Amino acid sequence: MNTAKSLRLAFSFFALVTLQACATYYQQHLDFNYEFEHGDLQQALNALKGSEAESKSRFLFFANKGLLLSVLGDYEESNAFLEKAFLFGEDYRINYFNEGVSYFTNPNFTVYRGEDHEHLMVLYFKAINYLKMNQPQDALVECRRLNIRLNQLTDKYSSPHKLQRDAFIHALMGIIYQSTKDYNNAFIAYRNALDVYENEYAKMFHMTVPEQLQKDLVNTAYWTGFMDEFENYKTKFGMQDYTPVQPDAELVFFWHNGLAPVKTEWGINFVIAPGPGNTMLFTNESMGMVFSFPVEEENDRRGLAALQIYRVVFPRYVERPLYFQTANLETNGTEYPLQLAEDVSKVAFQSLRQRMLQEFAKGLLRAALKKVTEQSLRKKDEGLGALLGVVNAATEKADTRNWQTLPHSIFYSRIPLVADEKNEVKLKLLPGEGSGTDYSFTYQPQKGRTLFHTFSSLESLAPSYSF
Amino acid sequence: MKKPFAIILLATLFSCQQSVTRVAPDTQIDLSGRWNDSDSRLVADKMISELMASERFKEYAKEKGRKPAIVVGLIRNKTSEHIDSDTYIKKLEVAIYNSNVAEVVESEEFRDKLRLERAQQQDFADPATVAQWGKEIGANLMLFGEMTSETDTSNKKRVVNYITTLYLTDIETGKRVWYGQQEIKKFVKNG
Predict the structure, then answer these.
(1) What confidence tens digit (pLDDT) does each residue in A170-213 have?
(2) Domain membership flag for residue B105
(3) Given the DSSP bridges, would you call strands A249-257 and B141-154 parallel, antiparallel or unpaired?
C-alpha cells in the first residue's frame, strides 16, 4: 500500500469515526428505528446488537428489548430484559472517572442512567406482562417496587414546581391492586393519582382527571366500605345517581399511542468575558443566561477571553406528534372512550426542562475545561494545541440518549365482560382528519377475572425538526 | 487550570462505592419519614402490652370458661401510604399464641385452603389419617382495625400523625371486648 493510499484510508477512517461521533443516538440506530417505526418488530429486534448489553447505553438496550418482546407477546423473555433494566437502575453508581473524562470529551462517555419516567415505565411494562400471564402476585411485587420508586422521586425533588409524582403510575398501582381484589390499597392508589392529576398534571400538562379514575375511585371506596368517601367523591364528580356494579369479568385496555420524543442536540453561542476576581463569564443575553467559572491562571483567562464567542451543545427533545387523536372501544352496542392517562412526551419534556440549568452548567464547564486545556497546550506546542482543538471540536456532543420506543401517550379504559362467553370488542382509532382504523378482538374470561390488553399504534406525524 | 483537574482527580479517588451493613432488627433507622419497620414494631409492642393488661379481656376469657379463639378480620387502611398491616398483626398473633391467653384460628383465606385440602383428603388419604369435617374451632372474637393519618405540610416541612386502632369484637354479640390504640407523630424536615 503506498503512502497516499494509506493517508486516504486513515482520513476516511477519521471521517467515519468523526461522523459516527457527531451522530445522535437516534441516527446511530437508524436501522433499528426504521424497522421499529415501520412496524416490523421482529426485524427491529434483530437489529438490536447483543454487544450493546455491555455498552454505556445498556439500560436502553434492555428497555428496548423488553418493550419489543412485550409487544410481540413474549412476556416471559420481555420480563427477563426488563428486570435487567430495573436492576441496572437499582445498582447504578456514578463512576467519577467517566464523569471526569466526559468533561474533556462529551457526556456520552458516561453510562446512560435513564430518566426518572423511563425507570417507572420499565416497571409498568413488567407489571402488565405479569398480569397478561395471569401472575397477579408477581405483578404486585412490581407494584411495590413502583411505590418505592415513586417515594424516591418525591424525595429527589423538593421543589413543588418540579415533577415529583406520577399520576399514571399511582393509577396503575390502583388497577393492579383492584385486579387482585385488594380494594383498600386500590383506593389509596387512586386517591393519590387523583391528587396528582388535579394538582401537578393540571398545572404542568393541562390534563384533566380521567373519568375512568373517578369511577374506579368511587367503586373501590364502596367495596372497601368507606361510605363517607364514597358519598363525597360521588358528589365531587357529579355522579350522585351512580351505583357500583361488580361485573362478571373485566377488561383493562391500554392504548399506547404514537412514539415518545427523540433527543437531539442544539447549540447556544456564549460570549466569553472576564468577570469579577479570577472568574470568566459565559453570557447569552438573548436567553438571559450568565454562568461564572473560576479560572486561576491569568494566561488561561486571557486565552479564554481571546475566544470571545464559544458554541456549546445541549440535549433537547423533539416531539413526534400524534397521528391518532382519539380512540374508543365498543362492545355489546356500548362505546367506551379511551382516556388519556399519561402524556409520556410531556413528562419527558418536563423532566429535561427542570434540569436544563444543570445541563447548561455542565455543558459550559465542559467547554471551558476543553478550551483551557487547549490554550495551555498551545503555549507549550502550537501544533499539538491546534490538534487538540480539532479533537475537542470533533468530540463536542450532547447526550442524545433516551428510550425512544416508549409511546407518546397512554390511554386506557375498563370495560365489563360476560364470563365464559366470547366477547367481541371493537377498537376504533381516529386521526385528526380522515377516516379511522378498526381492529377487532375476542375475549373469553373466567368469572371474576380481569384481563389486560395493550395495543400499540406506532403512527406519528412528521416532527417539526429533523433528527 | 490546575483546580478543575484537581477536583476531577479528587472525585475519581473518592468514587461512590456501595456498602451493606447488617444491623439489629430493632435498630431504629429513619430515612424518609414515611411509615417503616420501627413504626410497625412500636404498634405491635403497644398493642400486645395493652391486650395482655386488659382487665375486660381477662373477664371475657373467664366468663367463657376457656381460652377464647381469635380470628383476624379486616384491617382498613385510610392513610395515603400503602402500609402492610400484616407486619404488626403477625407480631400480635405470635404474642397471643406464645402467651397462651387465647387461641388463634386461621383467617378466611387460609381456612379456604384448609377446607380444600380436607376435601381432597376424603378421596385420596388413608381413612385412618383423614382429617374429619366439623372439628374446626369456631372463633369467639374477631380482630378489626383501622389506620388513619393526618398530614400537614408547609414548604419543606411535614407533620404526619398516624393513628392505629385495633379492636376485638365478640362474634356472637357484636360487643367490643378490647380496644388498643397507638399514635405515632412524625416531624420531617427536608433540606
Answers:
(1) 999 999 999 999 999 999 999 999 999 999 999 999 999 999 99
(2) yes
(3) unpaired
A355-397 pLDDT, tens digit per residue, is 888 888 888 788 777 777 777 777 788 788 777 777 777 777 8
Question: Contact A191/B80, CB-based, under 8 Å?
Answer: yes
Distance CA(A221)–CA(A186), nearest Å, equals 9
For the entire predicted model, the pTM comes to 0.83
Asked, for residue B17, whether it belongs to a domain, the answer is no
Domain for residue B170, yes or no?
A: yes
CB contact B8 to A (< 8 Å)? yes
Interface check B154 vs A, CB under 8 A: no
Report residue A459 as a C-alpha cell: 403512527
- Count other C-beta atoms under 10 Å from residue A192's C-beta: 23
Query: CA angle, corner A71, sides to A69 and A72, nearest 5?
Result: 60
CB atoms under 10 Å from CB of A60, counted, come to 24
Name the residue range of residue B99's domain: 37-125+137-189
Answer yes or no: do A295 and B191 touch at CB < 8 A: no
CATH number reported for the structural domain that contains residue B47 in this entry: 3.40.50.10610
| Residue contact B1–A158, C-beta within 8 A | no
Chain B residue with CA closest to A190: the answer is B80
Q: Is residue B31 part of a domain?
A: no
CA distances (Å), origin A467, targets A27, A52, A60, A261: 7, 22, 18, 10
Separation in Å, CA of B20 to nearest CA in chain A: 13
- What cell was used for A109? 462517555
Question: How many domains is chain B partitioned into structurally?
Answer: 1
Task: Find residues 58-87 of chain B whose CB sits inside 8 Å of chain A.
Answer: 74, 76-82
